[in-house]
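Subject: Sanity check before I submit

Could someone independently write out the structure tokens for this chain? I want to compare against mine line by line before I put it in a report. The sequence has 339 residues.
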Amino acid sequence: MDKKYYLEIDLAKGFAIVLAVFGHAAPDAVKDFWIVGQNSISASMHHLVYSFHMALFFACSGFLLYPKLGKAGGVNVEALKRFKRLMIPYFFLSFLYLAGKIFGGGLADHQLTDNPIVGILGGCSPCYGAWFLWCLFVMSMVVLCLKKVNLWVLFGLGGLISYIPLNIGNSFIGLRNVQVYIMWVVFGCMIHKYYARISKRINIWLGLIAAIILVFLHLSNNLFETHNHIVSHSIGIIKTISGIIASYTLCYMIAVKTINSFVNKALKICGDYCMDIYILSMFVLVPLRILYVNIGVMNYIPYYLWLIIATVLGVILPICVSKYYVRRTKLLKILLLGG
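---
Independent answer below. Compare away.
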């Protein structure tokens, strides 16, 4: 395709980052908090979001990676670009959080591993959300190195690998995440490759059917509950694919049908500041969580109201801080956003 810019992908990134902030904002989703209970609406929504939103991120990344597979210059040039973009923020955040947890670990919801330096190198960052950066870098390098392999074959191998139980220590949990998510990076590459044909078949019914399948499998979780790893993982893959298709169809319709709408413009901004929100929202949500849970604000603000406030602030404040400060400060731009 001659098209170089895809508004729908920006909107999908924006939609995914809003879901991510919502997921990170829910304190009952964190071990030992459970303010409103494991069977609450909030917990159910959290599980629904987490069934596909990270895979949606990786699929968008794969979509944007695909054009680079055929570029001249080899893997080394692209590897250096991606190292600056992803790994500099990863190491900066990891060591920043390492220092914070050493001196104030009592309030941390994710404690340090026995060997945090090894953990950082293995994708287990003290900055829990930074795992995405490490995994995306590793998966991008794998796909770039195997770019001559047929995408269908690569997707099939990624899917098969995701079924293999991998028992490794916490310090190398990043490898487990790569194992689970690499198929979705390849999935995004495949969407780009066949996008000329795919885009002609996108319609509201496709998204609606995908959404119904996702919600049905989510609400019927007890019916499909099984100790068979292959069956449960297969159901999880179906949910993930359904979530990606439903989300993408929604964003495609918004991009095509509502060009000047508030939702279109808002998701576009979120997509443009996707990396900024992902990085900086941690510095908003963690203090808010400490205030709510540890300081006792939960005694004055109803949980669901707090969840809305935290999600909104977790999106808006990072955009403002990045636009007016981080992106205008060269050092911070390099350390937090990879330049």
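---
OP: Matches mine. For the report I'm noting this point. The longest helix spans residues 74-104.
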